[in-house]
Amino acid sequence: MVMLYQVRDLSPEQKQAAEVLLGHPFVEGESISINRLSCSPVVPSKLSPEERIEAIKALDARFAARPRPDVSEEEEEEAYIEAMRSVRPNFTPVK
Fold it and tell me: What is the pTM of this model?
């Protein structure tokens, strides 16, 4: 469900609450969109804390090595999408 509000139509309390939540003041001509999202369940890691730390270090080292001539941009994008879908089955990439 998406709700769209004009800033000029908000009560002072509603405007203040929105400004606090979003972190900046609004101008009268702006609109505010509120969208309700369902949360995906958290998938517990199959790695121990030590294995996770080692995996993060390996990924940091791998991504720090640019350019990566052995991996095309398409392969990199496919790997990213596959990883995201493994933890968020409903993940849809934004193009």
Answer: 0.39
